[in-house]
Amino acid sequence: MDLRRDEVLLARPGDRRPGPMTAGMDRQEAFATDGMWSGFVRTEPGMESGWHHHGEHESVIYVLTGALRLEFGPDGSHTVEAGPGDFIYVPKGAVHRESNPSSVPADIIVTRAGTGQSTFNVDGPAGQ
């Protein structure tokens, strides 16, 4: 959606555009500016995404439905699990992958602040 900095805008579900692609995730962009990205993401039950990071963007994820497991850290050795009502903060450049361990679709809202490209798909995290 084209943004004008001098007006309030509304993005309804039909207004969302496909967001940056990562295997296993349906990202839908609601708004994007030079310094911010916000949208809706759905993952199906049992889904595991590809490894990725968000470059110079830090992200905040809010879980609406289902469950979200986020793997990160050296060789993906750290895990955070979240459910409805939980927030997750992901720092700039953190390589991670997401999965939905629940039996229902996981719907999440994501807002990113930063500059440049917002999604980079990679082979996996580096070990330490």
UniProtKB/TrEMBL annotation:
Write down the Gene3D superfamilies for this protein, in alphabetical order.
Answer: Jelly Rolls
State the source organism's domain of life.
Bacteria
InterPro entries for this protein: Bacilysin_H2HPP_isomerase, Cupin_2, RmlC-like_jellyroll, RmlC_Cupin_sf
Q: Known SUPFAM superfamilies for this protein?
A: RmlC-like cupins
Q: What positions does the domain Cupin type-2 occupy?
A: 40-110
Q: What is this protein called?
A: Cupin type-2 domain-containing protein
Source organism: Streptomyces coacervatus
Q: What is the lineage of its organism?
A: Bacteria, Bacillati, Actinomycetota, Actinomycetes, Kitasatosporales
